[in-house]
């Protein structure tokens, strides 16, 4: 996949229940590709409704997400760059014609790609706790990238699954806060919250894990440049 849609799928083994955070793009079926991970029915959380996170959600009996996300009636999604740019409100970006860099199988036709809604959706919101027996994750509602973006935080270990709320950035990258459904003021508040939590490790929606120090640096950079109180030198 083009890096834009190369999203992480996190799998956590718990004592009584397993957890899956995000489900990939759905170009290749997740369950039948990795059956050893899904012998027990996991709790499946979709951090938000973008195609690279909810593509495989329909393969599971039920899926958990925030009610402000359009998981029940998702956008169609597209692997054609210009079409996807319109859908996401990314018209200013020049996306490649094809977001697939290789075909998953010889007969695969990317024009047939379409997101499917999961059959059963369970609402989760701020303060809910996901109990895996020996591990417990709290739901944080952190709007900004999208209205119902959520992250999962385990206070005991300082672990955060952040979805697209925060991930590592290179010098010329920025968090996506001007796509359809995004809101900069909400994003500032969400990152103000995150920077105050005792987070040790972040498992983000894209790229490698980051530590708490890097997380706070990304939050501070964003807050400084986007906060309405920031005055730019004239
Ligand atoms: Zn996203
Ligand atoms: Zn993403």
Major sheet size, sense and barrel closure: 6 strands, mixed
Q: List the ligand species.
A: zinc ion
- What would you call the quaternary organization? single chain
CATH superfamily: Ribonuclease Z/Hydroxyacylglutathione hydrolase-like
Strand percentage lies at 15-25%
Shape: globular
What is the number of strand segments? 11
How many domains? Answer: 1
Which class of secondary structure composition applies to the elements? Answer: alpha/beta
- Succession of helices and strands: EEHEHEHEEEEEHEEH
Output the number of helix runs: 5
Q: Strand order, main sheet: write it out.
A: 6-7-8-9-10-11
Low-confidence stretches: none
CATH class wording? Alpha Beta
First-to-last CA distance: 42 Å
Radius of gyration computed on alpha carbons: 18 Å
How much helix is in the residues? 10-25%
CATH architecture annotation: 4-Layer Sandwich
CATH topology: Metallo-beta-lactamase, Chain A
Mean pLDDT across every amino acid position: 95
Summarize the structure.
This protein has 234 residues and is of the alpha/beta class. It is built from five helices and eleven strands.
Write the layout of secondary structure elements.
Elements: E1 10-12, E2 19-21, H1 30-33, E3 43-45, H2 51-54, E4 63-65, H3 81-88, E5 121-123, E6 129-131, E7 136-141, E8 150-154, E9 159-163, H4 184-196, E10 201-204, E11 210-211, H5 212-226
Parallel strand pairs: 2-3, 4-5, 9-10
Antiparallel strand pairs: 1-2, 6-7, 7-8, 8-9, 10-11
Helix pairs in contact: 4-5
One zinc ion binds at residues 48, 50, 145, 164.
């Amino acid at each position: 996949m083009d890096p834009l849609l190369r999203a992480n799928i996190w799998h956590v083994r718990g004592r009584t229940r397993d957890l899956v955070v995000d489900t990939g793009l759905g170009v290749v079926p997740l369950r039948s590709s990795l059956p050893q991970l899904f012998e027990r029915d996991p709790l499946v959380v979709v951090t938000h409704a973008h195609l690279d996170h909810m593509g495989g959600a329909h393969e599971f009996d039920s899926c958990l997400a925030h009610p402000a996300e359009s998981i029940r009636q998702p956008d169609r999604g597209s692997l054609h760059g210009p079409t996807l740019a319109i859908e996401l409100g990314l018209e200013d970006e020049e996306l490649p014609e094809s977001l697939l860099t290789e075909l998953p199988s010889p007969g695969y036709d990317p024009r047939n790609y379409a997101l499917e809604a999961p059959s059963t959706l369970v609402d989760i919101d701020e303060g809910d706790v996901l109990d895996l027996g020996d591990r417990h994750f709290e739901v944080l509602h952190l709007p900004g990238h999208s209205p119902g973006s959520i992250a999962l935080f385990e206070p005991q270990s300082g672990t955060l699954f952040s979805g697209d709320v925060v991930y590592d950035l290179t010098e010329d990258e920025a968090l996506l806060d001007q796509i359809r459904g995004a809101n900069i003021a909400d994003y500032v508040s969400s990152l103000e919250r995150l920077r105050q939590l005792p987070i040790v490790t972040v498992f983000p929606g894209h790229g490698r894990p980051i530590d708490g120090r890097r997380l706070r640096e990304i939050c501070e950079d964003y807050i400084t440049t986007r906060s309405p109180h920031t005055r730019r030198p004239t």
